[in-house]
Design goal:
mainly beta, Immunoglobulin-like, Neuraminidase, 5-stranded mixed sheet, globular
């Protein structure tokens, strides 16, 4: 495909010849043409648009007159697409197609396409060419149709983006014949391979799939009844229970996890009960393998162990828990796929009680994923930020993503304020994902891709990448408020939000991050992002000689052809993401074309894509990965463990939920010097970190105790099912009294008599020195309490206050203005009824 990406690669066609010369001249002199103005800095990737005003067409009575089938490789017409046409793909010059709407007059305000039948697709087009599957700066996006019947309707409008008056639509029916002999889906690869021996005991079984007569697997047909594992004996076999089964969001792979026994023969089966989106039954598949004779070694994490207890089961409801958070009020919060927030008090033993449902969107549903309390939130000022989008997982509306602030202080009437609207949304479940605050106070979040590998494909609804897709975005909350809320970040269809502007509240921090569910700013100052790679079957864009490349230069190497139906499953990676880095997922709107590490040498290159010809370069700013999880693992929720449980053995290590292959909690330890060097420990080596879990999606730590809570999404993709599991630390975090030995010489400051039953506690303790969560008990009701934090020489380094509740208790987050130095401090809580104090160790 040619990829000469200028804003418009062709001159707009003249109006229809039937328009009189006088009217034509009047039209030419009356319209205002807004051409793009490119940034003067050649290293800057995108364009700065001079005007965002779309001019409404000067004609009335618009109508769609015909459809033209387009060769998306050359952008040239193939034939007129008329009612009743049958397209034989084997007889066409290419399988990469698109459809152009032809209108009278030739310039209309906008058009809206609706394609139904064997594939479903909707498209709004404001700027020419008026293409059913859109274009990338004037270059037609490719569509590879599947077998079946289609109905195509297109309606013109007098204004941009479907505004103004609707004109006369055109509807046709046509059929596609791909020439394939079978329409049944089938397995193309299995891991471990058939006949494998010495298979690890935590190895999951995954298959790649192909769909001659469809686009993806019907995920409702993928379950423990249709995907099975058997123990094989000399004359018989027995079904293995307790398995976890899921498919990828794109429906292009299936994975089973189970508790495997050493030195045992197994048989993996998929039945014809699995069907594709058109109802075609999968060709049954069987493979066999034998496990290793050895059990895993605990390594340096010996004596780290957790005890599992299920707190919430599937009977709770019908929506899965997408994100877990422990608030500054020391309560457990769980966001759901239906847009609710569930809340519980945490008992001293880690179990939960006093359930409250919070409804940010009233009775409306939203897919709520990101949920993070503000750094300055307190128990009496519960300010948080959430990300959310349309609550569907097939044919989801584009531009439905939002970032909102929510105040949860009064659960019965949460206050929601939209900060960002019109973030892109994929056809399926790639969306605006989890949130984390950086040290700079900005909010960082991953925006999922619209495609498998950068170019249109049927499994992802043939939806092209938008400018903000497949990236880590940064939201400057102060700028957003200064410019007026909400910030509209729509980058197409009559809108031209520029994320590269110096005044932009939402900017692109890093690119090429395909689909990261979560991210964490580590205490070592680095941003770590576990990311889901694509299953087999995606398409990649071409990099044409003479095209502007992602570093701002003109690419002078040999043309890298587009690839279709790539039969290589891409790895799942942990990235150490830095500002401006590219991490492997192409987006032609950002002049990024090469998938992962390309194929630069004849050797085994990191993140190599074998379908590329040897010599295919990496993108100039490709930064590689810090750790490879392998294939079909789906690493999602991630935290940094912060408590001193197990005498600090886990402190500073990252815990990652492996949702698909593995179905466990994995431990990742960044090196103190080389922060891209990761030591990994699989969940099977830590008691309590692998059952296997039923699709673990997110994880949170109670830093006061070292206990963990995980969300098991249970039902794989889509809405999921609710389940929360407590993993109780067998050696809990040390209490504040355990630090007394460090402070034996520290002076104790007393201003008022201490009361024996009063208490003040701090966690985590020891503490990194930037945020102290403080609790007081047994003061008088509604009593003002002053906190003074003293250093070792008696200087007050922080002062704040709270008012206790009706029970004489209260909590507060103390955020010091400057990082505390290592050492021992005294925190004193004083009220009219008395005072108490505790020691705090800063490490």
């Amino acid at each position: 495909m040619k990829k000469e990406f200028t804003m418009y690669s062709r001159t707009r066609s003249l109006p229809n010849k039937r328009v009189s010369a006088v009217l034509l001249l009047a039209f030419i002199f009356s319209i205002k043409i807004n051409l793009p103005v490119f940034a003067s800095n050649p290293g800057k990737i995108t364009k700065v648009i001079k005007s965002t005003n779309h001019q409404t067409a000067a004609f009335a009575g618009e109508k769609v007159t015909s459809f033209t089938l387009i060769n998306a490789d050359t952008d040239q017409p193939i034939q007129t697409l008329t009612n009743g046409t049958t397209l034989y793909l084997s007889k066409l010059p290419t399988k990469n197609l698109n459809v152009r709407a032809d209108t009278y007059p030739s310039k209309v305000g906008s058009v809206y396409f609706t394609l139904t039948g064997a594939q479903i697709h909707n498209q709004m087009q404001t700027d020419p060419p008026l293409a059913l599957f859109g274009d990338s700066n004037g270059d037609y996006n490719p569509w590879i149709p599947t077998n079946g019947s289609y109905t195509l309707k297109c309606t013109p409008y007098s204004g941009a983006a479907g505004s103004g008056t609707a004109g006369t639509s055109l509807t046709i029916n046509f059929t596609v014949n791909t020439g394939t002999t079978s329409v049944r889906p089938y397995v193309t690869a299995v891991r471990p391979t058939n006949g494998s021996t010495n298979v690890d005991l935590d190895q999951s079984i995954s298959v790649d799939l192909k769909y001659p007569g469809g686009n993806y697997i019907n995920t409702n047909t993928v379950n423990t009844n249709t995907v099975r594992l058997y123990k094989v004996y000399s004359t018989s076999k027995s079904l293995v229970g307790g398995t976890a089964v899921n498919s990828t969001a794109a429906g292009d792979a299936v994975t089973l996890s189970a508790t495997l026994s050493p030195n045992t023969n197994y048989e993996f089966q998929i039945t014809d009960g699995v069907k594709d989106d058109n109802g075609n039954a999968l060709i049954p598949f069987t493979s066999k393998f034998k496990t290793t004779t050895s059990s895993p070694d605990c390594g340096y994490l010996c004596n780290v162990a957790f005890t599992e207890k299920t707190l919430i089961t599937n009977s709770f409801g019908t929506a899965g828990f997408t994100t877990l958070v422990i608030g500054p009020d020391h309560r457990l919060y769980a966001a759901t796929s239906a847009g609710k927030i569930e809340r519980w008090d945490i008992r001293s033993d880690g179990t939960i009680t006093n359930h409250v449902t919070i409804s940010p969107f009233g009775s409306a549903k939203r897919l709520l994923i990101g949920f993070r309390f503000a750094p300055n939130a307190t128990s009496s000022n519960l300010v948080a930020y959430i990300s959310h989008s349309a609550p569907v997982f097939t044919n989801a509306p584009e531009w439905s993503g939002k970032i909102s602030r929510i105040i949860l202080t009064t659960p019965s009437s949460p206050k929601v304020t939209d900060f960002v609207i019109n973030l892109p949304r994929s056809y399926k479940d790639h969306s605006t994902n989890s949130l984390d605050f950086g040290k700079d106070g900005a909010l960082y979040f991953p925006q999922g891709s619209n495609s498998a590998m950068g170019a249109l494909d049927g499994a992802w609804g043939n939806r092209p990448e938008k400018l903000l897709n497949g990236a880590i975005l940064r939201l400057d909350l102060a700028k957003a408020q200064q410019q007026g809320l909400p910030v509209n970040v729509k980058t197409q269809e009559g809108y031209r939000y520029d994320p590269y502007s110096s005044s932009a509240p939402v900017t692109i921090f890093a690119t090429g991050v395909r689909n990261a569910y979560d991210l964490v700013w580590h205490s070592n100052g680095e941003l770590y992002v576990p990311t889901n790679g694509s299953a087999a079957g995606g398409n990649t864009p071409a990099l044409v000689k003479g095209t502007k490349w992602s570093n701002g230069t003109i690419y002078s190497g040999a043309t890298v052809p587009a690839m279709s139906d790539v039969r290589q499953t891409m790895g799942d990676f942990l990235f150490r993401v830095v500002k401006g880095g590219y991490y492997g997922h192409p987006n032609p709107l950002r002049n990024e074309y090469i998938l992962n590490g390309g194929n630069p040498t004849s050797g085994n290159d990191p993140a190599e894509v074998s379908g590329y010809k040897v010599g295919t370069p990496k993108e100039p700013n490709y930064r590689g990965y810090a750790y490879s999880f392998g294939l079909n693992k789906s690493p999602n929720g991630i935290i940094e463990y912060k408590s001193n449980a197990f005498n600090g053995k886990l402190k500073g290590k990252m815990l990652v939920c492996r949702f698909s292959g593995g179905d466990d909690i994995m431990v990742l330890d960044p090196d103190a010097t080389n922060k891209s060097k990761i030591t990994a420990t699989e969940g099977i080596k830590v008691p309590g970190f692998r059952r296997p879990f039923a699709n673990p999606l997110d994880i949170i730590e109670d830093v006061k105790t070292g206990n963990l809570y995980i969300s098991e999404y249970y039902d794989g993709n889509g809405d999921g099912q609710p389940r929360i599991t407590l993993l109780k630390a067998n050696t809990p975090a040390a209490s504040a009294t355990a630090t007394e030995a460090y402070a034996s010489t520290l002076e104790v400051f007393t201003a008022t008599p201490e009361q024996a039953n009063m208490a003040v506690s701090v966690y985590p303790n020891p503490n990194p020195g930037d945020n102290l969560h403080v609790e007081v008990k047994n003061f008088a009701a509604q009593e003002p309490v002053i906190f003074n934090l003293y250093n070792a020489i008696g200087q007050v380094v922080h002062t704040s206050s709270i008012v206790t509740d009706a029970q004489g208790t209260g909590t507060s987050d103390i955020t010091v203005k400057q990082q505390l130095q290592h050492g021992v401090y005294i925190l004193k809580a004083a009220g009219n009824s008395g005072s108490t104090q505790t020691r705090v160790v800063v490490e």
